[in-house]
Specification:
Ribosomal_uL11_N, 4 helices, 33% helix, 3-stranded antiparallel β-sheet, Large ribosomal subunit protein uL11m, 23% strand, structural constituent of ribosome, ribonucleoprotein
């Protein structure tokens, strides 16, 4: 019971949750980062530097799904998922689109 009360006291107020797809190692304060983070007045350069540092181990230009939690005090936390199997397979095979005929 005491642990639950302590958790409630230390919980920060969430301003919003943002979902983006950003290329690994290529985050910059341009689209799509700037329009998404701007309304929450988050530090875009801090996000870009941290994201690029954490995605160095992935191949450049790999699309990464990012979930950013923005807090009322203008701080943020983010998590990203590893690249999707579909996107990775498509890139390795050199395909730009899926099948032209449905069901093949």
């Amino acid at each position: 019971m005491a642990a639950a009360a302590k958790d409630i006291v230390t919980r920060r107020a969430v301003a919003g949750t943002i979902k983006l797809t950003v290329l690994a190692g290529k985050a910059s304060p341009e689209t799509p980062v700037s329009p998404a983070l701007g309304p929450y007045r988050l530090n875009m350069m801090a996000f870009c530097k941290d994201f690029n540092a954490r995605t160095q181990k992935y191949k450049p230009d790999t699309p990464m799904a990012v979930k950013i939690t923005a807090y009322m005090d203008r701080s943020f936390e983010f998590t990203f998922k590893s690249p999707s199997c579909r996107g990775t397979s498509r890139k390795q095979l050199g395909l730009t689109k899926g099948a032209h005929v449905r069901g093949t």
